[in-house]
Amino acid sequence: MIKRLQEMQLENYKETEQKYKESRAIIHDIKKHLNVLDDLQKEDAQKAKEYRDHINIQMDKIFCGFHCSNRIMGIILSQKMSKAKTEGVRVDVSVDEINIDFISDIDITTIFANLWDNAIEACRKAEQNKYILFSVSKFNGFLLINLENSFDGVCKTKGKAFLTTKEHHEGIGLSSIQASVDKYDGVFKTEAQDKIFKSEITIPIPQKKDI
Q1: According to the per-residue pLDDT averaged within each range, which of 4-13, 121-130, 195-204 is highest?
Q2: Across 68-74, average pLDDT
Q3: How far apart are CA 135 and CA 121, in angstroms?
Q4: What is the pTM (predicted TM-score) of this model?
Q5: CATH architecture for residues 71-204
Q6: Residue 117: pLDDT band with limits 50, 70, 90
Q7: Nearest to 126 by CA among 146, 105, 142, 148
Q8: DSSP helix/strand/coil, 172
Q9: How far apart are the C-alpha atoms of 54 and 66, rounded to whole Å?
Q10: What is the chain's percent helix, strand, coil content, to nearest 5?
């Protein structure tokens, strides 16, 4: 787990450094962009709009980090979403504003990082329609975490448990998720059908006690 956290920190530093370099380049040329926009606006309003849209797209690419109420989850989702998109995976994420501070940072990392790593790895092997659908919501006092992803349809199982298809890999990802979910009296379910893999986690949210 310490190694996983160190790897995530390194990834975060590299990503931050790259975005810093890209933002410096845009800031350095901002006056030139403004001058071009000013001239275009006088001559061709449509081209000025297209140019402005292009600049906005470049800015969005730099500052597209995922933001939510939990800092650790936000960092994890930013990294994993960016990684998935660079590998041609369509990503659809919906996260409600829910306080999940009752889950430790270590367990948040274990649950979310492993879910996404498994999904990205599975999408790599899918021939087409590579996608990840992810949501975090609250219902009747329960935290619901759902992830659906495409895969090549090849599954290894032992009893009711799914095993990794990676060569020379211990495949502890799913068991690590299960161990973390168990700490909070939660339920972790997985299902594979028609080249679609689904993971569903349900964790009861502790009720605040009146003082």
Answers
A1: 195-204
A2: 80
A3: 19
A4: 0.67
A5: 2-Layer Sandwich (3.30)
A6: very high
A7: 148
A8: coil
A9: 21
A10: 50, 20, 30
Question: Which tokens hold the place of 180?
Answer: 């973390």
Share of the chain above pLDDT 90, in %: 36
Let me know: does 156 contact 162? Beta carbons within 8 Å. Answer: yes
Q: Name which of 94, 77, 197 is nearest 148 in CA terms.
A: 197
Lowest mean pLDDT across 32-36, 72-76, 132-136, 193-197: 32-36
- The first and second tokens of residue 203, run together, are 């964790």
Q: Which residues, 6 or more positions from 4, have their beta carbon under 8 angstroms from its beta carbon?
A: 109, 110, 113
Identify the sign of the CA torsion 36, 42, 47, 48.
positive
Does 157 score more than 50 pLDDT?
A: yes
Domain residue extents for the chain = 2-62, 71-204
Alpha helices in the chain (DSSP H): 2-28, 30-43, 45-62, 71-86, 105-125, 173-182
User: Which two structure tokens, joined as six digits, stand for 89?
Assistant: 């995976």
